[in-house]
What does this fold into?
Amino acid sequence: MATKPYSPVDPALYPAGAPTAPAGSALSWSAVFAGTVAAIALTLTLLTLGSAFGLASVSPWPGVGAKPTTFTIGAGIWLIVTQWLSAAIGGYLAGRLRIRWHELHGDEVFFRDTAHGLLTWATATVIMAIVAVGAFALSSIGVAPHDAVVTKEAADAARKVAAAFATFTGLSLVIGAFIGSVSAVVGGRLRDMHP
It folds into this structure.
């Protein structure tokens, strides 16, 4: 006895009946990987530019150049902008480069485009996290100085800075995931305007 691989479609969504059999996968990994590569490349480019701007604003002389707090706030804003722009470009490319899905309801196309953008953002984020952890592990191989004295005030200040950094990074990543998903929908809609 043969079974149908698909359940009947909702007649309200598809009044003409079931669409033809889908051609290919619902997920275009090649589009996701292309968006991931573009997002990582843009991230590296913007981080390099941000480093150049930051180094240009710092001076070894007291009272000259940016204050440490101004420098930290500027660096944080630059990192957030970098993450958001990279997510937008990666998501847009993933949506624009995916295959065209014929005879699917608009809600399904919207979901698939959103998934492409989210997976592009997630893949790029995981790769960048692996690189960051590897770089941190390599930097910690050196011998720590034995005469370093840490006061309670310094440890408390470092804890507060780390908590603020983690909060802003987490919020930026959540917003970056949303930006990547929306960008993929925009790219997918533009993709569907063409054969």
Observations:
- The chain is about 70% helix and 0% strand.
- The first helix runs from residue 29 to 57.
- Confidence is low (pLDDT under 50) at residues 1-7.
